[in-house]
Amino acid sequence: MITVSSLLDKDWRERYDRISRLNIRSSIYDVTNQCNLRCRGCFFFSSGEQHVTEETDIRKWEAFVDREKDRGVNLAILIGGEPTLFLDRVEAFHDRIPSYCATNGIIKIPRDRFPDMIVGISLWGSSEDEISLRGRDVFSISRKNYAGDPNAYYLYTLTPKQLGRAEDVVMKIEDCGLKVHLQLLSNDEGAAGFSWTPEQLTRARVEMDSLLDKFPKTVISSHYYHEVITTGMLLGRRWGFSECPSVTEPLDKRNPQPKRLIRFIRWGADLKTMHRCCTSATRDCTTCKDGAAHMSWIMVNKRAHIRTARDLKNWIEVYEMFAKLYKYIPW
Ligand code: SF4
Ligand code: SF4
């Protein structure tokens, strides 16, 4: 019988044991419907999911987070809109549950209020790419705000137009003392030239692998994650709604049920609406390239990877990547 012990030597077994002790129950929260940018391809504004009436009473936010904690959530992923526009709401989470804040980096999170909160700064390419897709050179602003911050990293969304040009961006990130995680654009608004062709996805995989090999201290990633997200295949199964682990649990009527995130919900900023999944209900699941969902797809399918040493090590590396991104283990 194939077991974990039969596939791993002592070092790998220790790595496996370290991540196996983690018991993460995450959910995602739209902190606000507002943003100080309007990026072309933003899943939030293109989906209409911002059309809920935002809760403005901070005491209701605090009570809501208390209920979420009671529900067993131990990792709050704060998105938006732009969460830094409402730091009192961010604080309501941060004071109660380990929290991660996604931001475009224009407003600097005050570290005296949030000393250890992990911040993921969205990045859509070089300064020129950001001007074209986001209307401003956001990269220059966010680098100035977060240079050297030990609890911040870039979430770099590669687009087809950046193939062959990502290295310069990663070098700039390394130069300012930050880390970077790579993901792929899903082009929710069908911007011309920004949808992936199979050939471009093959090149993206090569480029992501090369960035990880060249900048191993700066890029937080894994080759297997690159394979899965660019091919959309996991051990012979194809990505799509029927496989997605990041569907809001109370809305999940799929039959048969795939392996999924336990108790996961994505909440709207009215604190009542549950959205379908970690991205948007209007996105086409067959072309969805959401990085976190693909990462979770691998992680929840542990048992399927206990078949060869290489498969299980791939699984461990992806889990470690996730654990590093949320600082459960050091970078
Ligand atoms: S910064 Fe984020 S939430 Fe705001 S428009 Fe851009 S992608 Fe959307
Ligand atoms: S859009 Fe992506 S994250 Fe959402 S249900 Fe579909 S595959 Fe999952």
Helix content: 25-40%
- How many DSSP helices? 13
Q: Would you count the extended β strands for me?
A: 10
| Oligomer status | single chain
Give me the secondary-structure topology:
Elements: H1 4-7, H2 10-20, E1 26-30, H3 43-47, H4 58-70, E2 75-79, H5 87-94, E3 99-103, E4 118-123, H6 127-134, H7 138-146, E5 152-158, H8 166-175, E6 179-184, H9 198-214, H10 223-231, E7 233-234, E8 237-238, E9 266-267, E10 274-275, H11 291-300, H12 302-305, H13 309-325
Parallel strand pairs: 1-2, 1-9, 2-3, 3-4, 4-5, 5-6
Antiparallel strand pairs: 7-8, 9-10
Bound molecules: iron/sulfur cluster (2 copies).
Q: Please, could you describe this protein's structure?
A:
This protein starts with a helix and ends in a 6-residue tail after the last helix. The longest helix is centred in the middle third of the chain and has 17 residues, at 198-214. The strands form two sheets. Strands 6-5-4-3-2-1-9-10 form an eight-stranded mixed beta sheet, with helices on one face. A two-stranded antiparallel ribbon has the order 7-8. It is globular and about 55 Å long. Strand 9 (266-267) and strand 10 form a beta hairpin. It has a single domain (4-325), classed as TIM Barrel. With 331 residues, it is of the alpha/beta class. The protein is 38% helix and 13% strand. It has 13 helices and ten strands. Bound molecules: iron/sulfur cluster (2 copies). One iron/sulfur cluster (SF4) is lined by residues 35, 37-39, 42, 44-45, 80-82, 104, 122.
